[in-house]
């Protein structure tokens, strides 16, 4: 299913969830130092994880890399699929979240030129705090990473899982945990 917006085609899965992809961008494969966030296009004083909607016929990993390039102006080595996260409340999004090790940082990039988007490296703990205020689903990506999804042992793999064999993480599954563990 697809809905058309000016300059953008939105794609949906069989259950009506908007298909999205994002990357947690790190400086090293250790995934423990700092993570790259970008300013929101809607609220420039707030930070988000770079990501966005998937184009028709686009694979989730390709969409994730495209979105990071457009929004954050970085290229890198795509690592593992961290998980597929659902947001049910108001938006019905299903987001494939990958880990990316940044290898190239552009001085000027599409969203910096067109809409003045900024990017900044945050310590993982600080990023979680910043995201919990206005993008709690984005904070969940980093919280899941910290909960023991250990980094790959240098072997980057990009699994292509059919929709019926994927693991979904919802806000309801983590809402009962203290915020330090979510």
UniProtKB/TrEMBL annotation:
GO terms for cellular component: cytoplasm; nucleus. It catalyses: diphospho-myo-inositol polyphosphate + H2O = myo-inositol polyphosphate + phosphate. It is found in: Cytoplasm. It comes from the Eukaryota. Its main location: cytoplasm. GO terms for biological process: adenosine 5'-(hexahydrogen pentaphosphate) catabolic process; diadenosine hexaphosphate catabolic process; diadenosine pentaphosphate catabolic process; diphosphoinositol polyphosphate metabolic process. Its EC number is 3.6.1.52. InterPro entries: DDP-like_NUDIX, NUDIX_hydrolase-like_dom_sf, NUDIX_hydrolase_CS, NUDIX_hydrolase_dom. Belongs to the Nudix hydrolase family. DIPP subfamily. This is diphosphoinositol-polyphosphate diphosphatase.
């Amino acid at each position: 299913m697809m809905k058309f917006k000016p300059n953008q085609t939105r794609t949906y899965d069989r259950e009506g969830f908007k298909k999205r992809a994002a990357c947690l961008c790190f400086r090293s494969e250790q995934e423990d130092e700092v993570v790259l966030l970008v300013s929101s296009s809607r609220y420039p004083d707030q930070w988000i994880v770079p990501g966005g909607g998937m184009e028709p016929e686009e694979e989730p990993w390709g969409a994730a890399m495209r979105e990071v390039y457009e929004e954050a102006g970085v290229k890198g080595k795509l690592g593992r699929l961290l998980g597929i996260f659902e947001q049910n409340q108001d938006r019905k999004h299903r987001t494939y979240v990958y880990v990316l090790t940044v290898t190239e940082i552009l001085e000027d990039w599409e969203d910096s030129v067109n809409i003045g988007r900024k990017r900044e490296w945050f310590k993982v703990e600080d990023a979680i705090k910043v995201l919990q205020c206005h993008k709690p689903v984005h904070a969940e990506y980093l919280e899941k990473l910290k909960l023991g999804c250990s980094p790959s042992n240098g072997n980057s793999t990009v699994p292509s899982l059919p929709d019926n064999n994927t693991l979904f993480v919802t806000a309801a599954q983590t809402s009962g945990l203290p915020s330090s563990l979510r």
